[in-house]
């Protein structure tokens, strides 16, 4: 991902987090929104990379950890 694209993504998430915090909680966050935004994007990318080829679009999100565990070791697979 280019630096420009990454920065645009961080800025978009910043706006979303700021709006969500104000709408849902009625307060302005005292946390560093830019840092939170960058971390949200980093974690999302890590999950996508971890799921690539292992989790299909039809799989239920709650099964993600179970599927990764099964991929890590065949003895973890359900029979």
Helix and strand arrangement:
Blueprint: H1 3-25, H2 33-51, H3 64-72
Helix pairs in contact: 1-2
Task: Report the strand count.
Answer: 0
Structural class: mainly alpha
Largest sheet: none
* Tertiary shape: elongated
**Could you give the distance between the termini?**
40 Å
Helix content range: 55-70%
Low-confidence stretches: none
- Please state roughly what percent of the residues sit in beta strands, choosing from under 5%, 5-15%, 15-25%, 25-35%, 35-45% or over 45%: under 5%
Along the chain, the helix and strand elements come as: HHH
Helix count equals 3
Mean pLDDT: 83
Rg of Cα set: 17 Å
Number of domains: 1
Could you characterize the architecture of this molecule?
This protein is mainly alpha-helical and 79 residues long. Helices cover 65% and strands 0% of the residues. It has one domain.
């Amino acid at each position: 991902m280019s630096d420009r694209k990454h920065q645009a993504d961080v800025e978009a998430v910043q706006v979303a987090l700021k709006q969500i915090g104000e709408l849902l909680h009625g307060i302005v966050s005292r946390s560093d929104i830019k840092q939170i935004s960058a971390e949200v994007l980093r974690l999302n990318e890590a999950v996508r990379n971890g799921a690539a080829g292992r989790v299909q679009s039809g799989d239920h999100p709650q099964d993600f950890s179970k599927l990764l565990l099964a991929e890590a070791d065949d003895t973890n697979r359900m029979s």
